[in-house]
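Dear Dr. L.,

I hope this message finds you well. Following up on our conversation about the binding site, I have prepared a predicted three-dimensional model of the protein together with zinc ion. For your records, I am including the exact sequence and ligand specification that went into the calculation, followed by the structure tokens. Please feel free to forward this to your student if that is useful.
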Amino acid sequence: MNQSNYCFTCSICEFSTSPSSEIIICKKCKSPLDVKYASLDKSKTVVNSIDIPLPITSEDLISLGEGNTPTISLNNLSNNLDVRLSTKLEYFNPTGSFKDRGTSIMISCLKKAGIKEISEDSSGNAGASISAYASKAKIKSHIFAPSSAPNAKINQIKVYGAKTYLISGSRDNATKEAEIFSKTHGITYASHNLSPYFIEGTKIFAYEIFRDLYNSQDFPEHIVIPTGNGSLFLGAVKSFLELYSSNKINLIPKIHVVQTESIQPIYALFNTSHWSPSNQSKTIAGGIAVSSPPRVNQIVKALHENNGSCVIVSEKEIIEWQLHLANQEGLYIEPTSAAAFAGISKLMESKIIKKGASVLIPSTGFGLKDISPI
Ligand SMILES: [Zn+2]
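The resulting structure of the complex is given below.
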């Protein structure tokens, strides 16, 4: 397909514009933009043997073999919790996190548009992913990461070849520095949080759930996602809505969001409770340590429209669940992923998830990339 098959539309207001790698926020209300297809049926690209509306053709796809991740049942935890719990092992992706799905599509689109140099900010996983795919695409990358990011992730960013800048202070400082750098040097700001293309890639996660589990008793009634900037959550919601509007499914899973007590902007907006970035404290869940997510309004709107919920978990609960996954199921996941598993208890306490329900949680990142729980 080509660019005439889709446009960028505002996630909040009615603004729309022709696609451009330089336009990533709405000119009217400054909200992030999304890809909107003229026709879902005529925009399909075959990825991992699935027809998916995407802004890129298979010929132009830059791939490191991402996706097609396995889903496994977590029988021991299922018995303890009295639910049917499974996980999709997103850390099987080439750089060890789900981010590769979004990066593959974003870098493919930027390469197709002739972009030769990009900047980006990341707590670690997205930076490593973009560094890897940019190298493959022969695009020069500049990655801004918080100096507090785990060494394994920072080294991974450097090994793939990105010029790496460590920024002191909060995660949001890295964003500000990347934006300033882009403006100053006239380089494309390839923000995985803002780019409309990134969510098109994370959609593939849910398309695979549809391909592998729909029409089986394991098709999830609930999906629980650790959420900072929301790219996996928004991608999953968009996929299921596309499948629903194409009459491929008649049932959409409820998709819930988990944040931390330390940093909870989505939770606060969803529950109309008070929280501001000045209230933030340190969290081991670095992948969701985002105090001002640019898509927060879009995420909360999607939660309300699709019967989702948002819960918060403590640092202690995150470590406990990271260890539960390891010593009960043999899975070593990073703390950000463990936050989602900690959230399931909260969702059951509040009867949002009932006993016996089928629940899928993505294992978004691999444990060895982060600090050890012991
Ligand atoms: Zn707008």
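In brief: Residues 106 and 197 are 5 Å apart (CA to CA).

With kind regards,
A. P.
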